[in-house]
Design a protein that fits this description.
The chain is an alpha+beta fold and 258 residues long. It has helices at residues 3-13, 60-65, 77-89, 108-123, 130-148, 190-206, 224-233, 245-257, and strands at residues 19-24, 27-31, 45-49, 52-56, 93-95, 98-102, 154-158, 171-175, 182-187, 211-216, 236-238. Helix 1 packs across helix 4, helix 3 runs antiparallel to helix 4 (108-123) and helix 6 runs parallel beside helix 7 (224-233).
């Protein structure tokens, strides 16, 4: 096919505004109307390699996502599942960060349509729904705690076996081996902050020796009155996980060895 014929097929299957711009021998930039959430255009290149036409993002999609996310966060949890599913459904290959799709039997328009759908699905990880973000935050919290605290010094989803055998007042992670165990709470929402407040108040009522630490997904998003009450009962607060990992790790280490 000629470039003109390919462009016609692209427009017929994807949209009238699609166009090609020559960037060298058998290499074209593909301009489409599709955007990332922040308004940047998807990066798509059509090139001829080993007697096959290939669509490629040349690594731009992952690079764009890492403006807001750490690269390792794309490789685990819900984000990784979303990406893997998109690659599988639309037959896109991840070659060391470059996303590629071989054009099937000169079906250029269908290939571009599938490739764009894959890139848009993958870009969804940057604006997951609120519930999906919460679950990702909790996964990130657990992964962080597993790395920062030895296995024999922590218990996830802990509750007091004597006073609370049914687990009505749980702690996200309890650190042991100190005179006063550290109760660590992961807080992605107002509801979780309220629950943590109640759990800490119960520990006080039972006379359970403890220290307390809270790690928010985003403290600025928490209702001021809810936060104020929680601050009265919690010893140490970190406003977010991502920006404070080193500080939190140091704080935990000092608490365990102090």
């Amino acid at each position: 096919m000629t470039a003109e014929t390919i462009e016609i097929d692209f427009r017929r299957k994807v949209g009238a505004s699609v166009r090609l711009a020559n960037e060298g021998v058998n290499r074209y930039r593909v301009f489409t109307p599709f955007l990332f959430e922040d308004g940047d255009h998807l990066a798509v290149v059509l090139k001829h390699e080993n007697n096959r036409w290939v669509l490629s993002d040349e690594g731009h999609t992952y690079m764009h996502l890492t403006y807001d996310l750490e690269e390792k966060d794309l490789q685990r949890g819900n984000r990784q599942k979303i990406i893997s599913n998109a690659l599988s459904v639309f037959s896109v290959e991840d070659r060391d960060g470059e996303l590629r799709l071989l054009i099937p039997e000169e079906q250029f328009g269908d290939g571009l349509f599938s490739f764009i759908q894959a890139l848009l699905k993958i870009s969804d990880v940057s604006y997951l729904s609120r519930e999906r973000v919460r679950s990702t935050f909790l996964e990130d919290f657990r992964t962080f705690m597993e790395a920062a605290v030895p296995d024999d010094r922590r218990s996830f989803d802990w509750h007091d076996p004597q006073h609370d055998p049914e687990g009505n007042y749980t702690v996200d992670c309890r650190l042991n081996g100190m005179p006063k165990p550290m109760m660590v709470f992961a807080l992605p929402s107002d509801d979780r902050v309220r629950d943590a407040t109640i759990s800490l108040l119960q520990l006080e009522r039972w006379g359970t020796p403890h220290r307390s630490l809270a790690i928010f997904e985003d403290q600025e998003e928490v209702n001021r009155k809810v936060l104020a009450r929680f601050s009265d009962v919690c010893e140490k607060l970190f406003s977010s996980l991502g920006a404070n990992k080193d500080r939190i790790a140091t704080y935990l280490s000092d608490a365990m060895h102090g």
